[in-house]
Amino acid sequence: MNKLLVGAVALGMLSSAGVLGTGVASGETALIVPGTAPSPYKPLRALYRFNPATQPEIGANYYNSAGATREVIPYPGSVWPITGVDSPTVGESVAVGTNNLDAAIRGTNGPIVVTGLSQGTLALDAEQRRLANDPSAPPPEQLTFIKAGDPGRLLGRMFKPGTHVPIIDYTVPAPVESQYDTIEIVGEYDIFSDPPDRPQNLVAVLNSIMAGGYYGHTATAFSDPARVPPQDVSVTTNSKGATTTTYFIRTEQLPMTRALQDMAGLSPEMAQRVDTALRPVVDAAYTRNDVAPQAPWRPALPVRIPAVSIPAPAITGPAVNVPTAAVSPVVTKGIANQLRGLLPKRKR
C-alpha cells in the first residue's frame, strides 16, 4: 500500500515550475516556491490543469498581497523520471529550492511571507528546520510561512523520520517546532495533505489520488480563507509561541465522481447519485468522520443530596426532617412497611 501511495506522490506532484512574478512594491515581500514542473511527456501533461502564469498568485488570498512585491523562487521542481530521464530527483530538487529560498530570505529586508505549493512546500519545511536553531535567523515577527498541499503530511504519516524513500530520493525529516507562524491549507481528500487514515479503503485511496493528481490539490493554493467556515479553521500554538493555522477546504463533490462526469461523460444527475452512494464509503477512511462511542446509560444521580422531608408511613405525628445520610430506624421501618404492602400476599 505504501508503494501505491508513494507512486501517487511521484505522479501527482506535477503542478508548476519557477517563473518570476511581481506585484506592487511595498514593505512586504512574498517569496513563492511553486510546485512541480510540467512533464515533457504529453500524456502526463494532459492530466494536469495549471497555468504557470498564475504562480505569483499562490497563497495570495492568505496575506496582504495587494501591495506586496512578489518573487517566484527558481528551482528544478522535478520528479525524476516523470519530468524527464535527465531531471533531478525530488530530493535534489528540494535541496536546490531550499538553498535558493534561504538566500532570498536572508537577502530581503522587511516583513516576508513565504508561500509554497505541493513540492515547493517541502522546501518551506526544510527552510523552517534550517532556521529553527539558527541565531542569525530573521526574528519571528518578520517571517510567515504559507503551505498549500504539503506532501510532507503524507510522507510523515507513511514513514518514520529518517526513512529514505528511494523512488523519490527523499529522506523524511523529523518534525520541528518553528519560531514562525505558519498557515496550512488542506484540501479535503487531497492525497498529499489529507491522506486517508485507513489506506486499506481502496475506494478512498483512488478518490484521494484523483484529488491530488487532478482535482482539489493545486486549487487549494488559490482558495479564499474568508469562505472557510469557522469550524474548518483550527489554530495551535507550539512551545516557541508560534501558531499554526490550518484551513480545511471542503469539496462539494468527490474528486472521483467529478472525474467520471468530466472524463466518462456521466450526466450531472447520475454523477450526483453516484456521489451520494460513494461518499459514505470514502468518508469511512477518515477518523474525523468516526462516530464517538456512546457511554452506557446511567441514571443521573446528584453528587450530594440535601436534607429532605420524608413522611413516615404508619407513624403518627408530623413528618420528620432528616438528611438521607442519617435516616432514623423508625423511618426506615415505615418505608419498608409501605413497600411490603405493595407486594402480593403469599399464599399459605
Walk me through what this model shows.
With 348 residues, the protein is α/β, with parallel strands linked by helices. 30% of the residues lie in helices and 14% in strands. The chain is built from nine helices and eleven strands. It has helices spanning 2-12, 42-45, 90-106, 119-132, 152-158, 202-213, 255-263, 268-283, 329-342, and strands at 29-33, 69-72, 112-117, 143-148, 164-165, 170-171, 181-187, 233-237, 243-249, 308-310, 320-322. The strands form three sheets. Strands 2-1-3-4-7-9-8 form a seven-stranded mixed β-sheet, covered by helices on one side. A hairpin with a 5-residue loop joins strand 8 and strand 9 (243-249). Helix 1 runs parallel beside helix 6 (202-213) and helix 7 (255-263) runs antiparallel to helix 8. It is globular and about 55 Å long. The termini are far apart. Residues 3-12, 14-26 and 301-328 have low confidence and may be disordered.
Features:
seven-stranded mixed beta sheet, 30% helix, disordered N terminus, 348 residues, 14% strand, 11 strands
Number of strands: 11
The helix content, as a percent range, equals: 25-40%
How many helical stretches? 9
The fraction of residues in strands falls at 5-15%
Q: What is the H-and-E element order?
A: HEHEHEHEHEEEHEEHHEEH
Report strand order across the widest sheet. 2-1-3-4-7-9-8
Structural class, by secondary structure, is alpha/beta
Computed over alpha carbons, the radius of gyration is: 30 Å
